[in-house]
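Dissemination and training. As part of the outreach component of the grant, students in the summer workshop were shown how a complex can be specified as a set of sequence lines and then modelled as a single object. The example used during the hands-on session is reproduced here so that future cohorts can follow it. Participants entered these lines:
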Amino acid sequence: MNKLGWLALISILLALVVVAGVSAEGGMFFEYNSYLPIVMSDITETPNPTETPTDTLTPTEISVLPVVGETTFTKTFEPMVQPPTYTRTATLTRTSTHTRTNTPTRTATRTLTPTRTPTITRTLTSTRTLTLTPTLTNTRTSTRTRTATVTLTYTRTRTLTSTATHTRTHTPTMTITLTPAGQNVPPLWTTSYYVDVYVDTTSAGAQTQLAYLYSEVERIGCEIGTAHKDTAGAQDSLVILDFGKPTLKGTTDMGVSVMYRLGHMSLDYLDDAVVPFATGYVRCSYPDTESQVRIGIGTSNYGDASAVSFAHGAKFAKKVNNINNWFITNGYYNRVDAWGASDIEVTWNTPAVSRDWLNGYDSENLYPLIHFGDAAGCPQYGATATLCGWAPGATVRWSQEDIWYMAYGARPSFPLPEIYANDGVNASQWAWMSVIGTNRHGIKMDFLGTMTQFQACLQAGGCTAINNYPDDGWQYLYDWLLRDARTAMRLRFSTDIKWLDW
Amino acid sequence: MNPQSSQSNRLVILLVAGLALLFVFLLPRLALASGAFAVPPPRTTDQAQIDAIKGALTSSSIDSTARAGLVEKLTMVVRIATQKATITPRYTPPQAGAQALETAVPFPAVTLEPAFFEGSEGIIRPSMALVQNGWEGYLDGRPAQLFAGVHPENATQGMVIVVLLSTPDSAREMQTYADAVQRGWLRLVSEENGVFELTAEDGSVVFFDARQRMFLDSRP
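and obtained this result:
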């Protein structure tokens, strides 16, 4: 073989070695592209010169709104989701208890055959002696035989009464195992908490109150860690710790409080209040070192503008940054991270005040903000209205655009909507908001998942028609989003809130 | 074509094929090893979200507001994924006898200043009741709160919510009571010995005995 031949042979061998190596690593090269980190310079921002922000839909926008049920609509867009494929294995265990009470009623007539006909032979022997005077003896013996035939017929009647009462009790137990091969299977839901421990960091008893708060937060972190340890596989969960409304003492001491009107935990203590959750989680999940939990450090938009302020939002964001720094420095970050979170309710404040707080958060944040609020009064799927509910005393209603902005349009925000209503109306509202957002801004809303309040309703003695089970709330939103191929998506998290101090 | 020429052609074809394979498989790996490309981080649970945002950013119909939001979101989630991928876990399992924080921390006593107040103070969520106003104080010595308002889905159904707060000896209780008469929202006016006077949206007056947990037509 000449030089050229050797060169070719070596090249082929090298190539074969490379191919074998790639195969042994499970196709690493082919997945490589999805691992590439984003280089921000690759992202070019192209402002849309025709954009005219408005709170009402233009006739053109309305004309392109999809109509539910129109076949032409679904053909317009490329499907963005895989068809639902998952395996559902159902095992039905049925336990049955039977109680049987018998009172029998039975009628029987019995005729005996053959008829018995006995023959009776009776022999009479009599001797009669007569003595007469003069003496004359006359003895006469006579024998008389008489034969009689008797026919006997027997009839026997017996009456029995029988009444049967059957009681059957079934206690079926159905175990359904879902294999999460598809997108339409709810994830394991977690419990989120209103952290309603009374704290007033301006009071004399603050240290005792804080100690109790830290211990409670550590306890629930441990509970979730234990649950993850006891569940097969690596878990991926989201837990909201809702510390309540923004508060303000004096002119600069910003804080939070749940459940107590005069409560006030200064934001200076927020780090110390969240870290025990992580330590409890990691400690109790051991030896599970793969599962993860994301904490949403929650507040709300309740309060006047002095408390729900730009400054409060900015400081809140700094505290979230600090908490993540602690996780990173202390080696917890691969298991636990923290995002900001806010329960932004339509009836709790005006859009302007709520937006001011959000802008403050956006001015300092390094981590996203989870919007776990409502869309009260917003139009349901297919409606042409664009306005939502009122804040008390407000002169301007919330618009669908306001809520879209707070929940997703703003730079830090990701939505985790409250899907409380048992008839699915909340899911309908949010799904429609995503459709309108797609029409108006060109992107669907990227929902993190859903929040329900099933457990809080149990604690409160029941709710009327607003206590979806977590899986049902998740399914409602998933199904409503699936109505439009442009908004359909997998929902990563499902969480259900309750009060901590109960 | 003579046999020697045919053999040379085959060798050339093989050479070209070998070089092609080298370009396809080997060079990218060499580039990776040399650092010409960034080393890919391990796949994280946030990867799907990163992919989704990257996909959204390729849309030509996206407006500037949404694009600005997406760019920052992408920056954050990529940073988070990278931080998670590069961190060195330092946690060591607890030693025998190590104690958690949760042991033996006493429940702190709550001190309230009895008063009426506007709104729910963020205590009652709008999904449970649209609260007009509330009261905070003590019922039979126990810290308590009362809220009056209307059902969020039925504007004629007045409601009262009673909350007995946690104490060192007892857990919190919370219960909702619906006005038997559909007269709109209710509002707390005054309190005397645990009996609250309320006005309704239709102007009528009703009482609520917080101890007996029942509505009354008149003050007992």
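The mean pLDDT of chain B is 82. Students were then asked to discuss how this feature might be tested experimentally.
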